[in-house]
Each structure stands twice: as C-alpha cells, then as structure tokens.
Amino acid sequence: MKHPVLSLHATRMAVLALALGSLAGCESLNDMFASDRVNYKDTASAPALAVPQDLSSVPTDQKYIAPPATVTLGGAAQRTVTSAGNATLGVPNAQDPLGMHIERDGDRRWLVIDGRSPDDVWPQLQEFWTDNGFTLTTDSPSTGIMSTDWAENRANIPDDWFRRTIGRVVDFAYSSGTRDKFRTLVTRGADGQTDISITHSAMEEVLTGQDKTASKWVERPRDPALEAAFLDKVMQKFGLTDAQAKQLLTDARPSSSAAKVVAGTDGTTLDLPEAFDTAWLRVGLALDRTNFTVDNRDREKGIYYVRYADSMQELKGDGLLGKLFYNPKKAAKDQGPEIMISVRSSGNSTQVAVLNPNGQVDTSSDAQRIVTALHAQLN
Predict the structure, then answer these.
(1) Alpha-carbon distance values, 303 to 342, 351, 377, 378 (Å)
(2) φ and ψ at 282, to 5 degrees?
(3) Are residues 202 and 222 in contact, defined by beta-carbon separation less than 8 angstroms?
(4) 1-255 and 257-379 have identical folds
(5) What are the boundaries of the signal sequence (predicted)?
(6) Neighbours of 223 (CB within 10 A)
(7) What residues pair up with 80 in beta bridges, in sequence order?
(8) Would you state the torsion angle of the CA atoms of residues 29, 43, 12, 27, taken in this order, to the nearest 10 degrees?
(9) What CATH fold (topology level) applies to the domain 257-379?
C-alpha cells in the first residue's frame, strides 16, 4: 500500500518542480515576488522558545538607544507621514521620500531605513516574523542577529481539485517536502541609518532507494526571489504599500566594489576598496550565504564569530522525537571550532582576514579556503 502514496508524493514534487521552473522564466518582479508564494502561517509551530534573560534584555550600548525625541510614551518609534500619505517607520528625506530604500550587490539585496537605530526596528522585526508563522531561535538585539526555526512554505503545496475538496479535511497530512529558515542581520549603518538583510536557507526531502520507500534531506540553493519577497513584506510592515515596496525593489541601488585577494608571507587576506561600514555589512551577507553560521559579532572590534553550519544536524531537531532528544549545544560543538573573521579599516580600504586563536592572521590551508569562499561571494 506504500506505493500509491509515494507515487502521489512524487507526482506532487514533479508538479512543484514544474511550477518553480515556470517561475524561473518570469522577468516581472510582480510575478517573482508575489505574496501568494509565501505562506508559513499554516505550519504547525514548535513550542514557544524560552529566550535566555541575557539575550532578551534591552542592550544598554549607546549605539542601540533610540534618540528620545523619536520615542513615544509606549516605547515605539514614532512614524512620519510622507508626501504620499504613508505613516512610515523611516525618516523621509530628499533622497528617500519614503524614508527607506533598497541596495543591492548582485542578486543580494538589503533594506536601508533612514534615521532609525537598530533598537527602533527590532521590536517591529520580532512581530514581523511571529506574524508570518515563524518561531525565533536566535533573538539577540545586542548582536543584531535574528534567526527563525525551520518551517514549511505551504504555498508550495499544489492546490489541486482533491486538496480543494476532500483534502481540506486532512490538510495537515499534506507536505511540500521542503523546509526554509531565515536569518536577519540588523546593522547600524552610516549617517544614522539601519541596514536590514534577510538570508534564506533551504532543505528538501527526496525519495531514495529503488522502490522510493525511504527519504533523506538535502540542501537546496538559497532563493533570492524569496529573500526579496520577505523584504517586500518587511517594507509593508514599516508602512509602505505593496506597489511602493515592489518599486523600491525594482529601483535597488547598486553598492558593489570588487574584492581582491592579497597573498603575503603573513597569510592571505581580502582587500575591499570601500569604507568599513559598507564592508562590514557585505562581509556579514557573504558569511550568511556560505556554509557558516554567525554565532556572534562585535562591530567595535570588527570581528565576526562563525562556525561551520550543518543543516542536516539542525533538521534532526524537527519533529516530536527530534525535539525530545536533539541537543542544540552538542550539535553546535559537533560543527567544529569557532572561527574569527576580522574586518578592519586599512587606509582608504578595508581588510578582511581569518584570525587564529592568538588573534593573528591565520596562515593555514583552511583559512585560505575560507578567504577564497568569501572572495567568490563578494564578487
């Protein structure tokens, strides 16, 4: 009796593949970033995460404290009505009449909020991910890192006639065979701005064996269109209309400088011909799009603390048995030692290097491979 069920699953996966293939040919942002591509709200969520006190407390570092003039009695940042009639979280100016804009580096995009600190936008982002059906596994305003748990995009399940009729009764039994998670980096930018980037990670369950009676999870490439769809939704959360958000995505401003590998006797580094603020953001995005997870970051020291990320280990925590027996601390330890990535100003450019435990440039072959991976991402 297994074969008909598995055949149905395989058929659904084929339909999904055709649907995604058709999307690949779309040239319109209105098609690629359509809101109906995203539906995580119907996913059965895990129990609420108990955030440690030291992570949930409001940071006292001055750079994260919003100016008193822009804070209301309830603590939420005041919104400004734009000439277009929007009550926007950003502060409008001549260059950004909506108080925000999108910048891009290749297929990577991030949102720039004018006149706001990370502390202003953090509660709004917490609400955003919760309202969209996600559980936060990392919620650290002091480091500017926010990560979701793995979740299923129910919009990827084909809405055929059977599911629209009889299937609605047992809709929970349907699965797209995919899982997604998102990492949000909130960075203090130049001139009182805040940069917000969203990075997508994905896994897919594929059938294995001659009879297709078993399955395994494999990594899928990140989806830039899905990242843009969530940036679209964040902008709407911050006060824009859907049409305005899509227009800002279309009008994304290029922000890119080629990184150059510098090989010396004291190790291999990268040279970015740009200011520290821009380089710091771009290196964070590049790390997020490699097989590394940012555990922590210290902007004042210019150091990212990262580990090799094993998505398979993380998915072992999915499901009832996984939640009972999965040990995230042990899994993090199994992923290898923590690695320090240094980002520091050097004249008119910025130097990026892998550091050893003594704080010196690492000359090992592993460090060189990391520099090579970052170079590929930054170009």
Answers:
(1) 5, 12, 18, 17
(2) -65, -40
(3) yes
(4) no
(5) 1-24
(6) 19
(7) 88
(8) 0
(9) TATA-Binding Protein (3.30.310)
- pLDDT, tens digit only, all 379 positions of the chain: 433 334 334 444 444 444 444 444 444 555 555 545 677 765 544 333 333 444 344 444 444 333 333 344 445 678 989 988 999 999 999 999 999 999 988 888 999 999 999 999 999 999 999 999 899 999 999 889 999 999 887 665 555 544 444 444 444 444 567 889 999 999 988 788 999 999 999 988 888 888 878 888 888 888 999 999 999 999 999 999 999 999 999 999 987 677 888 887 788 889 988 889 888 988 888 887 777 788 889 989 999 998 876 655 555 554 434 444 445 555 545 556 789 999 999 888 899 999 998 889 998 888 888 888 888 888 7
Question: Could you state, in order of their start, the residue ranges of all structural domains in the chain?
Answer: 1-255, 257-379
Please give the single-letter amino acid code of residue 364: S
Of 17, 19, 39, which Cα lies nearest the Cα of 226?
A: 39
Distance CA 20, CA 1 (A): 30
Amino acid in the structure at residue 66? A
pTM: 0.66
Q: Which amino acid is located at 160 in the chain? A: D
Q: What share of the chain is helix, strand, coil (3-state, %, to 5)?
A: 35, 25, 35
- Residue 289: both structure tokens together: 């799009």
Please report, as a single letter, which amino acid is at residue 162: F
CATH 3.30.530.50 correct for 1-255: yes
Cα 180–Cα 186–Cα 191 angle in degrees, nearest 5: 150
